[in-house]
């Protein structure tokens, strides 16, 4: 099974919450933001937003509700602080992106404004057996017009763990700032490019040569820790010099891994001898047929964090997950730092891929003697389309 052979194979469209959509106005009021629908292809959300801002001209902050895949065709809402007195252009566009004016919103757009995302995904390079397995699994997972799946975090959540060296967050809670930093900026990954590729490969081979590296490495946001170390700073200070989003993701990744481990335990108990298992680089994802998963529907398990107490159906599984990492809930904090922090927000254990449809297999025009299928479904905000594909056997 192969996805994203072309950007058009993976189409994502944000769906606004009805209340948020109803608050969009056609006439401007004081303090309003200009709301645009941003469509992009083969660009990250920050890249497309930067191009939109440059094209719009006299604007202030630009806000978006989430990050969308780069190797895809995606549509999402963004809000702009429109400084000009004249009306916003009805259409702004450039190579790989376009933005259509929607109306006025009384504040910045935020994550809660998004109800979910609609996906249309072409799955390629299928054998006849793999295609038949997709049908078998879909039949077991279907619940009305939806697929019911365990709401795992997808692999794209796991940041430094993709490098195969473990989770930076696990090192951080033990006070091993050097180990965390090495994972975050000193461990090459296959997808590194540009200045980051140069940085990670140089640090992997010359770790400790801070003065020379600070003088030689190209400018990038992630070079700053090297400069801190070259000036005699500690590894903790070097970690704090990383961009805030990198620091936050290092905690999010480890926390999500612990949550996934607990969710897998609960799914396996629900599935019994009818478990649907798919392995990936982070271990197994266990899914349960829809009739076995109903016991977990409506259950919300918090992210592991200090102050979270074991209770309800998930308590034992989450406690064991943290214990298997050699930790307790109270130890999920970074010594000497207030941020980033492990937050205890709840997450639904079951997600529904609503309006699920899967085409019949047809010859794959890009891979001789193989098949392709098109899937379409809508997921709630923060659920992962890649997990739906895992459930179907990817």
Describe this structure as you would to a colleague.
By secondary structure, the protein is of the alpha+beta class. The chain is 32% helix and 26% strand. The chain has helices at 18-22, 45-56, 128-141, 168-173, 177-185, 194-206, 210-216, 224-230, 235-240, 244-271, 290-293, 315-324, 385-391; strands at 10-16, 33-41, 59-64, 73-82, 91-94, 97-105, 114-126, 142-143, 146-150, 276-280, 283-287, 300-302, 346-348, 350-358, 362-363, 371-380. Strands 1, 2, 3, 4, 5, 6, 7, 8, 9, 14, 15 and 16 form a 12-stranded mixed beta sheet that branches. The longest helix is centred in the middle third of the chain and has 28 residues, at 244-271. The chain is globular and about 60 Å long.
Features:
16 strands; alpha+beta; twelve-stranded mixed beta sheet; two-stranded antiparallel ribbon; 394 residues
């Amino acid at each position: 099974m192969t996805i994203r052979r072309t950007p058009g194979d993976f189409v994502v469209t944000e769906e606004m919450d009805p209340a948020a959509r109803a608050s969009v106005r056609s006439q401007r009021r004081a303090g309003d933001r200009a709301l645009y629908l941003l469509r992009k292809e083969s660009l990250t959300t920050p890249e497309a937003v930067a191009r939109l801002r440059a094209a719009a001209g006299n604007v202030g902050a630009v806000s978006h509700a989430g990050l969308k895949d780069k190797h895809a065709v995606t549509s999402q809402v963004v809000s702009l602080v429109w400084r000009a007195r004249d009306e916003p252009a009805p259409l702004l566009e450039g190579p790989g992106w376009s933005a259509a004016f929607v109306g006025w919103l009384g504040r910045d757009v935020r994550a809660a404004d998004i109800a979910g995302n609609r996906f249309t995904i072409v799955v390629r390079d299928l054998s006849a057996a793999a295609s038949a397995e997709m049908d078998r699994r879909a039949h077991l997972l279907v619940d009305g017009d939806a697929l019911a799946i365990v709401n795992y975090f997808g692999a794209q959540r796991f940041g430094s763990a993709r490098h195969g060296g473990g989770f930076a967050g696990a090192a951080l809670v033990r006070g091993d700032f050097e180990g965390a930093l090495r994972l975050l900026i000193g461990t090459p990954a296959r997808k590194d490019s540009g200045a980051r590729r140069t940085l990670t490969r140089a640090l992997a081979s010359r770790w400790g040569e801070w003065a020379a590296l600070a003088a030689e490495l190209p400018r990038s946001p992630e070079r700053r820790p090297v400069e801190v170390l070259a000036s005699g700073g500690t590894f903790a200070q070097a970690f704090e010099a990383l961009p805030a989003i990198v620091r936050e993701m290092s905690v999010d990744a480890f926390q999500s891994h612990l949550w996934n481990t607990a969710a897998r335990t609960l799914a396996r108990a629900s599935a019994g001898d009818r478990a649907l298992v798919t392995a990936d680089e982070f271990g197994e994802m266990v899914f349960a047929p829809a009739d076995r998963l109903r016991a977990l529907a409506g259950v919300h398990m918090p992210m592991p964090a200090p102050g979270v107490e074991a209770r309800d159906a998930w308590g034992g599984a989450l406690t064991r997950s943290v214990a298997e990492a050699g930790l307790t809930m109270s130890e999920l904090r970074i010594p000497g730092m207030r941020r980033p922090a492990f937050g205890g927000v709840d997450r639904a254990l079951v997600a529904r891929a609503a309006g699920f449809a899967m085409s019949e297999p047809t010859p794959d025009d890009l891979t001789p003697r193989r098949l392709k299928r098109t899937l379409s479904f809508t997921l709630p905000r923060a659920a992962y389309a890649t997990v739906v594909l895992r459930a179907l056997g990817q």
